[in-house]
Write a structure and sequence with these properties.
Elements (H helix, E strand, L loop, with lengths): L3 E6 L3 H14 L2 H14 L9 E6 L11 E5 L5 H5 L8 E6 L3 H10 L2 E6 L4 H11 L2
Parallel strand pairs: 1-2, 1-3, 3-4, 4-5
């Protein structure tokens, strides 16, 4: 079980704090206790991803495969900015969007592993998505 490194490209500070809080809850002892109870009483296997470490920045960097997950706020960056970046084909990207499809189509051509969440974020959806991504 290795640590999971996540980088988020966001310009919205409130969204960044929401993500940081959500990932903090996924690392919490309460979550571990709940997962253990689900395994013992219901036979549901526990997802193991180690500690989730998140870095939030407002400047997009190359998608070079150095992090386990890249989170991009589709509202904050347009395609012209993303076209200047280098993308590793097998990188995992979670796109946060409000219905804009052109950024999705651009990223779909660049990477194989692309997931989307619609804003505003719901903590349960975030946790379910992270479980699916690291499954």
């Amino acid at each position: 079980m290795n640590d999971t490194n996540i980088i988020a490209f966001l310009k919205d500070k409130k969204l960044g704090e929401s993500l940081r809080l959500g990932f903090g809850r996924m690392n919490s002892p309460e979550r571990a206790l709940r997962a253990r109870g689900m395994r013992l009483f219901h036979g549901v296997p526990e997802k193991k991803w180690g500690q989730l470490k998140i870095k939030i920045t407002d400047v997009p960097e190359h998608i070079d495969g150095m992090h386990d997950l890249y989170i991009i706020d589709g509202r904050a960056f347009d395609i012209e900015i993303l076209e200047k970046l280098y993308f590793v084909r097998h990188s995992r990207i979670l796109l946060l969007h409000d219905g804009e499809s052109s950024i999705y189509e651009f990223l779909e051509r660049k990477v194989q592993n692309l997931w989307c969440l619609r804003l505003p974020l719901i903590e349960f959806e975030l946790e379910c998505s992270i479980k699916q991504i690291f499954n």
